[in-house]
Amino acid sequence: MVEKFENLQKTLRLTEIFYSIQGESSFMGLPCIFIRTTGCDLRCNWCDTEYAFHGGEKWSLERILRHIAQWPCKLVELTGGEPLLQKNLPLLADELLERGYTVLIETGGHRDVSVLNRHVVKIMDVKCPGSGESETNDWENLKRLDQKDQVKFVIKDRTDYDFACEVIGCFGLQNSPKLLMSPVFGVMDAQQLAGWILHDGLPVRMQLQLHKFIWHPDTKGV
Ligand code: SF4
User: Which residues are 107's β-sheet partners?
Assistant: First the structure.
């Protein structure tokens, strides 16, 4: 009991919490609460959340749980920045699961995902060369995923596409986890990427960032 109380007083550094439409992954289109942590140890060339690199505010787990209870939604996504930089994040995930939330995490793929409860749905990037961060991929993470989890390749050009195909083949990812492929917004032509996928019959779910079509691409907190 005391331990539980103490856990709820622990903190995370957050940039924002908001309620919106899930824009990427197999959950795309569903109402979802986003908890965006502050800070990232990568610098992807095409990053669209640089505003989450610095600043932020400390929130206790108790305050977070109370805050999100205002929304009629049981789907929560932990995102960033890089959420796995926050040492109390696994605790928050446990508390959310205990309260009946479905918990997703979006992570860069360079931090050990096994620190999380196995019921958390991991949406994990494999960084392609165009990100400038492909050397940081923790390949062991691919073995830590299961069928409910998702691997995302963000594609900037043909080199990235070929890299993704090689990773899918080398690690035997054709059947599990789920595979996602997105064009870098405003850089990679979506029709061209669709053409490559169709030509190869690649077993990936192509996705656009839905929220950028509903709201202006530069809008924060949506
Ligand atoms: S891992 Fe995510 S938050 Fe960090 S730099 Fe890359 S895209 Fe941005």
Answer: 124
Domain count, the chain: 1
2 burial via Cβ count (<10 Å: 0-12, 13-18, 19+): exposed
Rg (CA), the chain: 17
CA gap 42, 131 in Å, rounded: 10
- Cβ partners under 8 Å of residue 98, min gap 6: none
Pocket probe for ligand 1: among 34, 46, 49, the residue whose CB has the most ligand atoms within 8 Å is: 49
CATH number of 126's domain: 3.20.20.70
Cis peptide before 221 (omega within 30 of 0): no
Report the separation in Å between the CA atom of 3 and the middle of ligand 1, taken as the mean of its atom positions.
33
Q: Of 3-7, 9-13, 27-31, where does mean pLDDT reach its minimum?
A: 3-7
Residue whose Cα lies nearest atom 3 of ligand 1: it is 81
Residue 131: which domain range?
Answer: 2-214
Q: Does residue 219 lie in a domain region?
A: no
196-209 mean pLDDT: 95
From the CB of 49, is ligand 1 less than 6 Å away?
A: yes
Residue 221 located in a structural domain: no
Q: Check whether the bond before 177 is cis (ω within 30° of 0).
A: yes
Mean pLDDT of all residues in the chain? 95
What is the model's pTM? 0.94
